[in-house]
Design a protein that fits this description.
It is elongated and about 85 Å long. It has 4 helices and 3 strands. By secondary structure, the chain is α+β, with helices and mostly antiparallel strands. A hairpin with a 2-residue loop joins strand 1 and strand 2 (91-98). A 3-stranded mixed beta sheet has the order 1-2-3, with helices on one face. The longest helix has 21 residues, at 2-22.
């Protein structure tokens, strides 16, 4: 009698697990992270890329200060915190996608507030809503 109940429980658990495996899971929304077409501009040699970053101490300090301020800034999206910051001869180029015009403005202001920056070229793009 005990073995019979145990066998029924095992069959019930097995059947439940099988049914769970057969049920479709809700579709997860995925965002296309492929920005290959956006990066084509990197190959034309006319736009600075992170590989063009100067190793001069003053330029590295500028990049570090801007990056630190971006990471510390609340209410910025992850993309905004990760924009490309490229500095050569104390001139800063900002590149990458952000969620809004406000984020683009905040990032440029953070770069402007950094001591020693002579010029800022803001090439940040605002993502289009899909």
């Amino acid at each position: 009698h005990f073995e019979n109940r145990l066998m029924k429980k095992i069959i019930l658990v097995y059947a439940s697990l099988t049914l769970v495996g057969l049920c479709p899971l809700p579709a997860q929304q995925t965002n296309d992270a492929d920005n290959t077409s956006r990066n084509k501009q990197d190959r034309n040699g006319k736009v600075l890329t992170p590989a063009d970053q100067s190793n001069a101490e003053a330029d590295l300090q500028v990049v570090q200060a801007i990056r630190k301020a971006l990471v510390a800034k609340e209410n910025l999206s992850m993309n905004a915190k990760n924009v490309k910051v490229i500095t050569t001869d104390k001139s800063v180029v900002l590149r990458g996608p952000v969620k809004s015009a406000q984020e683009k403005k905040v990032i440029e202001q953070i770069a402007k507030e950094n001591a020693g920056v002579r010029k800022i070229e803001n090439l940040i793009e605002i993502e289009t809503q899909k």
